């Protein structure tokens, strides 16, 4: 059964895979109000259903990251011809309103044209890029870009959060910094390296480069 530490470690793997390939500029992460990191699958034609899971963190007033809140993913239209597509996604939340959408028990991505592909490249100049509320980065079986997450439904996994923080703790409290990080997850070190801050190299090296979106099916 999944728990919050496992979800955090998976998120760390996904974020690290984008960083190592130079896909997400450090400035993008440094300016972010929040990050939602998840893996999912999309089914087309005769295979019904689509889903996945991940975690979201929010920037606190002191510049640090909040503890993570777990969520599930449910997708609508897929735009694929046949079969199942497994993908990884990093959503960079550029506004407080985008972060607050993840504080709801359920929200849908893409409403009001709030999504756009994020700037690519470790040294990219983002000053000329129109800042959307959410920048997305996707990867499917090792191929970057080309996927849209519009219409994806994000729903709080209250059971996993309750197991980690206590039954009365809400997503709002988690993302406002009223809870502590799970002590055994490596995700904080990946977040540090994403912002080009000093990290514990030993912990970072223990994060596997394999992610769900690299799986061949």
UniProtKB/TrEMBL annotation:
It comes from the Eukaryota. Coiled coil: none annotated. Pfam families: Ysc84 (PF04366). Signal peptide: none annotated. One of its GO terms (molecular function) is phosphatidylinositol binding. InterPro entries: SH3_domain_YSC84-like (IPR051702), Ysc84_actin-binding (IPR007461). Residues 75-193 form the Ysc84 actin-binding domain. This is Ysc84 actin-binding domain-containing protein. It comes from Exophiala viscosa.
